[in-house]
Amino acid sequence: MPGTRSSRLTPATKMGLSIAIATGLYGISFGALSIAAGLNLWQTVALSALMFTGGSQFAFIGVISGGGAASAAFSAASLLGIRNAVYGMQIKQALRPRGRHVPWMAQVTIDESTAVSLGQAEVDEKCRGFFSAGVGVYVLWNFFTIAGALLGERMGDPAAWGLDGAAVAAFIGLLWPRLKAMEPVLIALAAAVVTAIAVPLTSPGLPILITATCAAVYALTTGRRSKPATEHGELQNVQEDRA
Amino acid sequence: MSELSWWILAACLTAYAIKICGYFVPRKVLDSPTMSHVAATLTIALLASLVTVNAFTSGQELVIDARIGALAAAVVALVFKAPYLVVVIAGALAAVLLRATGLAA
């Protein structure tokens, strides 16, 4: 049996490939929104090929389209990428890769590949899940980014096509799956309030970084407690943070 | 290369450096509840902040226009567990429809 298994699609490979198709497709929206934000084709392609972490890529163009400085876009994208370091550590722990594989594995260490890999029971399946989702998303995400960017170049005025509405939807779509408990919801609401207060007071791009700073301070002051605190306790802390 | 291109290159290199850190930095540095908590909190706060900026601001002003309809449409799509691409298209359609019907700017 083990001999025949490797030659056909295992559950982890199937899961990885279906996530690759679903995620890859929305590379179209990234490509089109990046052009609408004012980046050119090559800058858009570079973000998908080299940065390759959807949240950070959307953050970068989101700051630019809001009129923010490139340095603010850089900071927002980099801060949003920090979770990939946590994923890398988990993948290293789970798959124990050889050193020579680490350089390419690091590049495809993202939300999707980590989720598919860690969701499997055996080590072999974890490897297949990581590989199929990681490489699959990479190939399709880049392909559809180019398609979206070429489409975006022909669209002209972004607002006429509702691309500004698409950008809002893109961000809430990235945030939504993370709002599964009370604490994340309160953090998100507090972050929205801090941002709204900062917008009229500071130059474009900065409100996002001010919010990130508040969130980091909040996390550092509450994170040392051993695992889930009571909801009530978290609620108080979020409100203090907001004030 | 333009200044923006250099920042893009820097952001790409930083993103890769962060990813590879996960594989090389000693476990005890990253594998603390504090580090996971900071990473998760930052991710949520930044995305919520980006939603706010993209939905409710124009330069340094807070505004309400067709984009709030896009946000509502996206949330409805998410509640019904629509695929990500459908969520994005729902947002775009809502904005286009609200403007076409003159209900919002």
Task: Walk me through the structure.
The complex is a heterodimer of chains A (243) and B (105). Helices cover 76% and strands 0% of the residues of chain A. Chain A has 14 helices and no strands. Chain A is globular and about 55 Å long. The termini of chain A are far apart. Mean pLDDT of chain A is 87; it is low at 1-5 and 226-243. Chain B is mostly helical. Chain B is built from 5 helices and 2 strands. Chain B has a two-stranded antiparallel sheet with strand order 1-2. In chain B, helix 3 packs across helix 4 and helix 4 packs antiparallel against helix 5 (84-100). Chain B: Pfam families: AzlD (PF05437). Chain B: The chain crosses the membrane at residues 6-25, 37-56, 68-98. Chain B: Keywords: Membrane, Transmembrane, Transmembrane helix. Chain B: This is AzlD domain-containing protein.
The description of the largest β-sheet of chain B is: 2 strands, antiparallel
What distance lies between the first and last C-alpha atoms of chain A, to the nearest angstrom?
Answer: 62 Å
Percentage of residues in helical conformation of chain B = over 70%
Alpha-carbon distance between the two ends of chain B: 37 Å
Unreliable sequence segments of chain B? none
- Count every beta strand of chain B, where a strand is a DSSP E run of 2 or more residues: 2
Largest interface: A-B, 105 and 77 residues
Please work out how many helical segments of chain A DSSP would assign: 14
Count helical runs of chain B: 5
- Strand coverage percent of chain B: under 5%
Query: How many beta-strand elements of chain A?
Result: 0
Q: State the assembly state of the protein chains.
A: heterodimer
Global mean pLDDT of chain A: 87
What coarse outline of chain B follows from CA principal-axis ratios? elongated
- Rg of chain A: 20 Å
List the domain count of chain A as a whole number: 2
Please state the structural category of chain B. Answer: mainly alpha
Q: What level of helicity do the residues of chain A show?
A: over 70%
Mean pLDDT of chain B: 91
Secondary structure class of chain A reads mainly alpha
